[in-house]
Amino acid sequence: MSPALSTRERIVQASLELFNSQGERSVTTNHIAAHLGISPGNLYYHYRNKQAIIAELFAAYEQEVRTFLHVPTGRGLTLDDKAGYLQALLDAMWRYRFLHRDLEHLLDSDAQLAERYRTFAAQSLEHARHVYQGFVDAGILCMTARQVDALALNAWILSTSWVRYLCTTASAASLDEAELRRGLYQLLALEEGYLSDGFREAVQAYMERLLAA
């Protein structure tokens, strides 16, 4: 049996749920407290304001991305790694979709968070370059160093803006994982022209499965 969550953990969990379902701007600390059945004072005992909750959620998202966005040591990358990266990215995008959807507002509202995000973005982009270079070294992609840099940047732009794009075409409340999964297809489409002949058929088959899911 899992141990009961602390009040602090329940606040973070409830906030994530409400931010994802209703949008961060629509949710106040009073809404979070009412959702949990606790007093606002109890919530403020643990978090002085909503920005402090968002900062903790961002830290969790940041750690999740850092956990998977790296090249394994002691071996080359494989096609299984490509699927693993994409699934991990999908999980992070879905779990913290409010961050992607409301990013501009969140950064405009909190200078400290904006600075943290800039550092995180720069580090993630560098890690993405290493990952793509790892696929080049493994013979899966055929690219120059300049093309690796461009692909990493384009992939970062696409993955961090995909949720916002979806919200321009449908209601934010109707987002589901299938729509986010289409973003993975778009990421693979960016590199399709660089695939080595020996791997092209397998990657294209995976892309078709993403569209069919």
TrEMBL record:
One Pfam match: TetR_N
Span of domain HTH tetR-type: 5-65
SUPFAM superfamilies, alphabetized: Homeodomain-like
Keywords per UniProt: DNA-binding
DNA-binding region: 28-47
Molecular functions per Gene Ontology: DNA binding
UniProt-listed PANTHER family: ACREF/ENVCD OPERON REPRESSOR-RELATED, TRANSCRIPTIONAL REGULATORY PROTEIN
UniProt name for this protein: TetR family transcriptional regulator
